[in-house]
Amino acid sequence: MSRVLLLNPPGTKNYIRDYFCSKLSKSHYISPPVTMLALSGILAEQHELIVLDAMVEALSRKQCLARIRAVMPEAIITLVGAASWDEDRAFLEEVKNATTAYITAIGDVLLEDTEIRLEEACGIDAALLNFATPDILALIPRPDGRIIPNVVYRGLDGRGYVNGGITKLQGEFHIPRPRHELFPLRRYRFPFMVSHPMTAVLTDYGCPFACAFCVMPTLGFGLRPLCEVIEELIFLKNLGIKEIFFLDQTFGVQGKRTLELCRAMQQSQLRFKWSCFSRVDVLKHDMLEVMAASGCHTIIFGVESGSEATLARYGKRVKLERIQRTLAACRKAGIRTGATFILGLPGENEVQARTTLALALKLPLDFAAFNVAVPRARTGLRAQEIAAGLIAREESIMDQSGRQGAVSTRELPAGKISALRQEAIRRFYFRPAYLLRRLLCLRSWWDFKTQVWDGIGVLADAWGREK
Ligand code: SF4
Questions:
Q1: How is domain 3-164 classified at the CATH fold level?
Q2: Ligand 1 — pocket residues by CB below 6 A?
């Protein structure tokens, strides 16, 4: 048994690094990193585990380093992100110099050109490319020279790399019960939560769809047995958790299984408030009723664009009429809805971007997130942008929140995309009728506090100059 530290490193900005995505938080929230939660279940079965989330604890580098020194772990598994890469590697170099720990990192920035990224980061010994398999266990306390799937690590003779490649997950997979109790659960917040404390739960991994701007299809798609999920929910109920964020990338892909989960939650008195991400063509109307009855209060849909042609070009074959029908059905079932939109996709001019904004204003949405197109590692969009000469292969800044700028396309310069994004936020959130509806729909004191806190973040995002 080794002493292992699971780490979310500190940052000068409010970074979210999780599930092979990294960005700046659009307001002040940080939700529990499901990457760390899943790894906590896998690691705690065999090792002494310590969790340190320096982001949510708002620790400085110095404070975080002192906490790591006090623990003196033999191995550290740390989150990293493309949005925070320069800070992450500088901090991990400090950790490397201050400890004897073997340091493994996981994050979007390491998914592509992993060996080149490790060359840039002398504080990182190994990269982990999947958090839903037990492959990490072969790295602890340190690897023995064998090839490990989903792991790239520095050769033991100090030269070259041992590269196990990345495997796409398929079929059923298992995660021993994540050790939520080791995380500072009272500190986590999420913009849609209506009660507290909250945590995140995973029922599947990856995504079976194939949107070209998204990294999830490259991970494969696997399902966790429902009995494992229920066991975790029962534990969370006893731990006093009130709110769950199901962090599946597309919740409800298998309708029968989803109904089974919702009914089991109702029958076992697992009465959480909960929210999820999904697609408008996945959730059938009868499912929405059952989801609402089991505590679902908010669903966030990836709507992405107001142009069916753009959606089709990027592999998201969804009709606008279907979007409207599903949102209306959610409202009928008493479920709030949010949508994510992408501005600045290559091929879209200003007129088409404004079509997306017009759709956002027309739909009966409670929340909207306006992101910018970024060439995330391993995506079709990235390959396309490199081939078109829009970005260099070594370009690794991939903050889809848009708070650190955008990527110019042939049709729109980066500055224009950022300006359109800020205009979209202002026009969506500062409509008097919208503000009144949000006020009338408040569901709890927690909801009120969250919305006020979130509103301050939206104000800063809509008028701020973060780059
Ligand atoms: S955008 Fe959503 S539906 Fe499309 S591949 Fe990604 S997670 Fe799946």
A1: Rossmann fold (3.40.50)
A2: 207, 209, 211, 214, 216-217, 249-250, 279, 302, 316
